[in-house]
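Human: My hope is that you can spare some time for a protein that puzzles me. I am handing you a single protein, as its sequence and its fold in C-alpha cell form. Could you go through the record with me and say what the backbone is doing? Take your time, and here it is.
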Amino acid sequence: MEITARYRRRAPGLVAVMILASLAPGCIGLPSTSRSGKTHDILIMEDRLTPLDLKTGVGDEVRWVNRRARPVWVYFMREDFEEISCSRGFSLFWATEEGAKVEPGQSVSVCFGKPDDEVSYDVQDAPIVIRGSTAGEGGSFESPTALHGAILVEDAATPKTQ
C-alpha cells in the first residue's frame, strides 16, 4: 500500500483531533494576575519592542502593552499546559501556540509557571491566516511580517549567573 493511500485513510481522524485541539480553550481556569506580584511590561511601539529581550522569574506577569495606533497580534509557542500559570487575553491557537489580539492602548499578559531558557514571541500587524485544507492538501499559511523578541524565565530560587 502506498503512503498516500494510508495517509488519506488516517487524515479524517487527524483532522478531527486537530480541530478539537484548536477549539479547546487555552487558559480556562487560570488566574489573570501574577503569583509573585511582579509585572514586567513589553511596550509595543511603531517600529520596535521595548525591551526586546526580557528576563523574568517564574510566576511573574509579562504584559504586552500596545502603544501603536492600530491593533497587533502577539503569538508564542509553548511546550505544555503547565508552562503558563496565569493568562489574560490569550487563547490557544493550533494546539501549542498562544495568540492574542491587542487593541491600541490595551494589554494582554501571561505568567510562566516554570523556568525556560527562552520563550520566543512575535508581534504582528495582522493575524496568522490559514486557508484551505487542514489535511495539508492545497492549503496555504500566511504569516505577516513580525517583530521578534524573547523572554528568559528563571527560577527565583536558583538565578542564573552571567
Q: What stands out?
A: The mean pLDDT is 76.
